[in-house]
Amino acid sequence: MKTLRRISLLLLVAALACALASCSITIGGERYSDQSKETTAGATSAETRTSSTAAKTTAAKTTAEGTCAHVREQNYTVDVQPSCTTAGRKSYHCTLCGEIIPGTTVSIPAGHTPASTYTVDVQPNCVYPGSKSYHCTVCGEIIPETVVSIPAGHTPASTYTVDVQPNCVYPGSKSYHCTVCGEIIPETVVSIPTTPHTPGPYEIVIYPTRTHSGWKEQKCTQCDLVLEETRVEIPPDPNSPYD
Ligand SMILES: [Zn+2]
Ligand SMILES: [Zn+2]
Ligand SMILES: [Zn+2]
Ligand SMILES: [Zn+2]
Q1: Least buried of 2, 59, 71, 161, by fewest C-beta within 10 Å?
Q2: 78 band by pLDDT with thresholds 50, 70 and 90
Q3: How far is the CA of 65 from the centre of ligand 1 (A)?
């Protein structure tokens, strides 16, 4: 009975103090209309415990309308994970009631997850370029903005092919051919120098006389060109019938 009397006395004092401070308090309940008084209004330890429990379950703090006066979490909570093609969303939740705080929801854009290496989608050939891209590691699709062209091009052989045999008049040419289509790869074409002339037998052009020398020369057996460097003088011939 002593204990009960003491509690009654405490409640009376508390109610009195509260009346003086002009706050409204529900003795034995869990609601305070004045939030600033929550920790200082002389609530008994039992009441403090009740209100902290209530915070987790119903709502310790309420607005005038009786709904939760939300307290924002520090970080966003992802409510809907975005996928490759559909957007997600995130929001701030209330630390008290766990609900999404209205007006804080933002969209998380949809998007693929690019692989770290290229995939060749179209093999280039001699004539047509190919393409490669990063694929999505989730859905496998080509990520359009990563598509790049692979230039078309021949595959050069490792040895030259003589395309035009040179002769003593015209130079020839050789090139690397493509091992795939066989065509000459234009930028590999190089010239082959002309071959030397092939001197034929000496032919006397001017016969010597007893008093004048003559000369002889050689022609190329391939192109019939007179090889002027072969021209030599024939000394006068004492046996010539001419002067
Ligand atoms: Zn809340
Ligand atoms: Zn994807
Ligand atoms: Zn080719
Ligand atoms: Zn010649």
Answers
A1: 2
A2: very high
A3: 13
